[in-house]
Design brief:
Number of strands of chain B: 0
CATH class of chain B: Mainly Alpha
Helix content of chain A: 25-40%
CATH superfamily of chain B: MetI-like
Radius of gyration of chain A: 18 Å
Structural class of chain B: mainly alpha
CATH topology of chain B: MetI-like fold
Structural class of chain A: alpha/beta
Number of helices of chain B: 24
Largest sheet of chain B: none
Distance between the termini of chain A: 43 Å
CATH architecture of chain B: Orthogonal Bundle
Radius of gyration of chain B: 23 Å
Oligomer: heterodimer
CATH topology of chain A: Rossmann fold
């Protein structure tokens, strides 16, 4: 399988400290990969490097074999990468309605001209929000906002979807409901997905293919069940969590 | 309140009926309002794009450009009018009869004040944009180009800050008497002023004339409450976010040139003043300056301390949504945005009495006037600081038995020393630049520097007036530089 997203020996520095160190990662077309790591390990920075929001200090980022960023330069700007993102805080534009959020994305790319309305309606229908077009994000519940963010990410049919811990602040029931929705949508579309999370159970719900990032370095890449005993406390915690049954929501 | 009592007294009531019954009163008010609207629109046209570019893009030298552009807002606008006069007046460096006729008229007033106040809009737009959650911008950047991100996402989200800027510019313009009087344009606040101390002396009429201004002030407070409210806190913070500026690409060079041009235009009047003053003016001015600089420094420093102390208490109460805080904030806002002649007339009515001459004839009256006018700056600036700080710090201290003053002195003040210093600095500089408020009631022999310059303008030597204006600008620059360095030091320590 050829790599759709690829990072080759990428390093990112913030001041004197290193955020990412010699990271090499490939995500193939149609592949779903979970990027697991403790807080502050550089997961979100890696995502921002892929999106073109941060230029790597060293190394090369490629999208479908095209150089997107390299040593200090962003060659393909974020808006031309055709990647979609769902941030942890969702980043729904509060001054735009639900339909407005989706319309902004469609008009930015000039897609679906003349059929915007229908396309937005279909997309909202897929996430169970038909009829919510005129509402503002502030008028929605947390779960509804998550669905709008997912709809906004998928409305352009992007080449890959990057999820930056969008389910982190949800209760177990809501999380299960949204994971089921995501699995369904990704399967139907054959989406390429990079799912950043610190929760191994959440990762396992979407894929068994994981990458572990610790202190800015990739320490493991492979199936969740094949984690080696490296002595890392995070990997041990992942092993324990992924083998233990989920606790019911208190 | 004394002013209201004056208005309701029998004689004043009759005076009010006569004065407010005249058509020319209302046409002059409409003319002043029209000028204020035009200046506000001009400031928005200059300030919004400049603020957006300087606030979020990779324009060359953006911090320096913002500082240069913003500096004139800390000076009395009539100093800038003097500068434009030395450029475009009949005898000016590039002046002619045509440029002089443009300058001495409504166009000159609008252009001078729009350029003088545009940095308010610029700065609030830039601050408003910098306060927006970075992920909202990044989400837009993944689908669209930087200019569309600015136009469709950042500017609409920053509108409360922009609206606050428009409100402040409108209010300052409606208060302004220095520029219209110098450029020979009749305005309503100037009419009030001349009835208190000029050839048209008629204090009863002045009291009557302030009533419509008071109504305008109340209207502006209503606008602030309905449209801006607590969101104005977002515009006043000191926090800066760690996010890369938006790349302008090929537009970087032309936009950099454009914003630097706008910034340098702000300095043109000061350059003209420097040329007019020359070395002789700078030395002669020392003989003319008298005690005015000391008076300005002393009154402004004391007033700024009182304003900061007031801001600590009321701003904190406002941020924590304590009872009555909102009312006190509204009163402070009313005193700021109501044209200053209202406050001036009120101060005269309240303190010009036999028993209160120890206030009316001393520095105290200046301090009181400045505190009343600029108290809102401390309240809003420190309200913004406390608004961002988790109440848990104070609640933890309270749980361990610390009372209000101990919490304030040992927890909040050290934690927010930078914000407190910034509030003092803003209050100090605004008090230093004030002409409109104190010109109505400054005591004999205690004229602040702006009043000294303004009164000398009519019959003093031009090179001395230009030099005094430059001294004022230099003093302001020194204060801001020292304050900026101290703020920078505190940031590094924290």
């Amino acid at each position: 399988m050829s790599a759709l997203l690829s990072l080759d020996d990428v390093s990112v520095r913030r001041g004197q400290s290193s955020v990412l160190e010699n990271v090499t990662l490939d995500v193939g077309e149609g592949e779903v990969v979970a990027l697991l790591g403790p807080s502050g390990s550089g997961k979100s920075t890696l995502l921002r490097v892929l999106l073109g929001l941060v230029a790597p200090a060293r190394g090369v980022v490629k999208l479908r074999d095209r150089v997107a960023s390299e040593a200090g330069r962003v060659r393909i700007p974020p808006e031309e990468r055709d990647l979609a993102v769902v941030f942890q805080d969702l980043a729904l534009w509060p001054h735009l309605t639900v339909a407005g959020n989706l319309r902004f994305v469609l008009r930015s790319k000039g897609r679906f001209r003349g059929e915007e309305r229908d396309h937005i309606h279909q997309m909202l229908e897929q996430v169970g929000l038909a009829g919510f077009e005129g509402r503002y994000p502030g008028e929605l519940s947390g779960g509804e906002q998550q669905r709008v963010a997912i709809a906004r990410a998928l409305v352009l049919d992007p080449v890959a979807v990057l999820l930056d811990e969008p389910l982190a602040n949800l209760d177990v029931a809501m999380k299960q409901e949204l994971i089921a929705l995501l699995v369904d949508l990704f399967n139907k579309r054959g989406s390429t997905v990079l799912h950043v999370t610190h929760d191994p159970r959440e990762a396992a719900e979407l894929t068994s293919n994981v990458v572990i990032l610790e202190d800015g370095r990739i320490t493991y890449s492979g199936p969740l069940g094949g984690l080696p005993d490296t002595g890392s406390s995070f990997i041990r915690a992942v092993q324990e969590a992924s083998s233990a049954p989920a606790k019911p929501d208190p | 309140m004394v002013l209201v009592a004056e208005l309701l007294s029998g004689g004043a009531f009759r005076e009010m009926r006569v004065t407010l019954g005249e058509a020319r009163t209302w046409s002059l008010l409409m003319r002043s309002m029209g000028l204020s609207v035009a200046v506000t629109l001009g400031a928005l046209v200059i300030g919004i794009p400049t603020g957006a570019v300087l606030g979020r893009t990779d324009v060359i030298g953006r911090r320096a450009a913002l500082l240069v552009h913003a500096f004139p807002v800390f000076l009395p606008p009539f100093l800038l009018a003097f500068g434009w006069f030395h450029l475009f007046g009949r005898q000016g460096l590039v002046g002619s009869a045509w440029t002089s006729s443009l300058l001495f008229g409504p166009f000159g007033v609008i252009a001078t004040l729009a350029l003088a106040f545009a940095p308010i809009v610029t700065t609030l737009t830039a601050l408003g944009i910098s306060e927006i959650d970075p992920s909202l911008e990044e989400a837009a950047r993944t689908v669209t180009r930087p200019h569309r991100t600015v136009m469709r996402i950042l500017l609409p989200l920053a509108w409360p800050s922009i609206a606050l800027g428009a409100l402040v510019v409108f209010a300052l313009t409606l208060s302004e008497i220095g520029v219209p009087m110098f450029l020979r344009v009749r305005t309503y606040p100037a009419a009030v002023f001349t009835r208190l101390g000029g050839i048209e002396y008629a204090p009863g009429e002045a009291v009557a004339l302030v009533l419509p201004l008071l109504a305008v002030g109340l209207l502006l407070v209503f606008v602030d409450r309905r449209l801006i409210g607590r969101r104005s806190f977002a515009a006043l913070g000191l926090r800066s976010r760690q996010i890369a500026p938006l790349p302008l690409g090929r537009a970087r060079m032309p936009l950099s040139a454009a914003v630097w041009l706008v910034s340098l235009v702000s300095l043109l009047p000061l350059c003209a003043l420097a040329l007019e003053a020359g070395a002789s003016g700078m030395s002669d001015a020392l003989e003319w300056i008298g005690p005015s600089m000391g008076t300005s420094l002393a009154a402004s420093a004391v007033a700024a301390v009182v304003i900061t102390a007031m801001g600590l208490v009321i701003g904190h109460a406002l941020a924590r949504r304590r009872r009555a805080a909102s009312t006190l904030d509204a009163l402070a806002l009313l005193a700021f945005i109501t044209p200053s002649s209202v406050l001036g007339v009120g101060m005269v009515a309240a303190w010009n009495r036999p028993g209160t001459q120890f206030v009316y004839t001393t520095l105290i009256i200046l301090v009181l006037g400045l505190v009343a006018r600029y108290g809102i700056l401390g309240v809003r600036a420190l309200g913004a600081v406390f608004h961002r700080s988790s109440p848990h710090y104070e609640e933890a201290a309270a749980a361990f038995g610390a009372g209000f003053f101990r919490r304030m002195g040992r927890i909040l003040l050290p934690m927010h020393a930078r914000g407190v210093l910034a509030a003092w600095l803003i209050a100090f500089v605004f008090c230093m630049r004030d002409l409109d408020t104190v010109v109505v009631f400054y005591p004999p022999g205690l004229e602040p520097l702006p009043v000294r310059i303004f009164t000398l303008e009519a019959n003093g030597p031009q090179h001395v007036v230009a030099a005094l204006s430059l001294y004022h600008a230099l003093l302001t620059a020194v204060v801001l530089t020292v304050g900026g360095l101290l703020l920078g030091l505190r940031r590094r320590r924290s």
